[in-house]
Each structure stands twice: as C-alpha cells, then as structure tokens.
Design goal:
Elements: E1 6-9, E2 15-19, E3 22-26, E4 28-29, E5 37-38, H1 39-45
Antiparallel strand pairs: 1-2, 2-3, 4-5
Length: about 70
C-alpha cells in the first residue's frame, strides 16, 4: 500500500498506517482542536476504512505545528 494508507487496526486497537519502509502503529490520535484519545475510540466516532489515505487534506493550509501557513 502507498505510504499514508490506513491498514486497519492492530490487535491492541492501534491504527496501522503504511510507510515507505513498512507500517506505523498510531496508539493515540488527536483531532485538530480536540483532546487526545486512544485510536480505537477516535475511529469509533470517525471511521477511516482500510485503504483510505490519512493525513492533511489537500486544502489544509496549516503548518505541522497547527498554525496558519
């Protein structure tokens, strides 16, 4: 899968994301302006199907530190 693709949940509820060298497990997710929470809790409210790309939307104009570009 291309880097940035959701690969589903691992056995511990972490979100698996494809990288250029394998995969990354995200245990904690934090929506913009929201509180940090376990990945499973976030995905229960905001499903991201396996195979979907994750990351900033193409029209996102914020820097990685959350400030406007």
């Amino acid at each position: 899968a291309p880097a940035g693709t959701c690969l589903g949940l691992d056995a511990d509820g972490g979100m698996r994301v494809a990288t250029g060298d394998g995969e990354l497990i995200l245990a904690i997710l934090q929506p913009a302006g929201g509180r940090a929470m376990p990945a499973r809790d976030f995905l229960n409210g905001t499903p991201i199907p396996a195979g979907d790309a994750v990351g900033p939307s193409p029209d996102d104009d914020t820097d990685h530190d959350g400030t406007a570009a």
